[in-house]
Amino acid sequence: MAPKLYCTKESGNCYKVRLLASFLDLQLDQVEVDFFNIQHRSPEFLAINPRGELPTLVDEGKVFNDSSVILVYLAGTNPDPSSKTVPSSYWSSDVVEQASIVDWLAFTASWIQFGLSKARAIVSFNWPADASEETLTEAKNRGMKSLEILEKRLEKEQWLALARPTVADVSVFVYVALAHMGDISLDPYPAVKAWIERIQGLPRFIPLDGLDKAMHQR
User: Fold this and answer.
1) pLDDT tens across 54-100, in order?
2) How many whole angstroms separate alpha carbon 2 and alpha carbon 140?
3) β-strands 4-7, 56-59 pairing
4) Which pTM does this prediction carry?
5) Do the two domains 4-77 and 95-216 of this chain adopt the same fold?
6) What distance lies between CA 68 and its chain's CA centroid?
7) Residue 57 contacts residue 63 (beta carbons within 8 Å)
8) Where are the alpha helices (DSSP H) in 127-166?
9) DSSP β-bridge partners for residue 29
10) Where are the domains of the chain?
11) 26 in Cβ contact with 77 (< 8 Å)
12) Is 95-216 CATH 1.20.1050.10?
């Protein structure tokens, strides 16, 4: 039975799970949850995930509640396409390499989530509805600082954590590529834009609403 992914199509955190699954040629049973009508807070969903968070993955009775955790789980328990070797190349069996990957997952959970992701939510979805101009400015400033950090890294390296794409790149990618939805331009960050192109050029890349504009900004 395929792992069951509870998700909502507008969520970048849900998309990154679907993207990794596509890279790994892994089938997921996707269940759409109506986030904007608060379906993730319904008694039925809270019985599955008491945190009421998306995405949520259920596989063989195990429940995984966070996008980064789900990425690690899928990459660590599945092989690359046409391979039987576990973990996949998107994870690692080496603890030092794992630490390098997790460092960027933490960057996503702090810098990206409270910068680029928050700015996108406010500008494109008016969420939360009571967000002030000061809150948006703070999110944009944090988002641009995140891009500066990424630019310096990607001026020297093709990929974020290791010499190959990993869940670090998958995790960081989506809200960076969707920066324009938070009124943040990628033009000052050519190395970041080149990295976005590399990810979009990987086999089995799948689109997300808004990414077409990012692709046209090359």
Assistant:
1) 899 999 999 998 999 999 999 999 999 999 999 999 999 999 999 99
2) 38
3) antiparallel
4) 0.91
5) no
6) 8
7) yes
8) 133-154
9) 4
10) 4-77, 95-216
11) no
12) yes
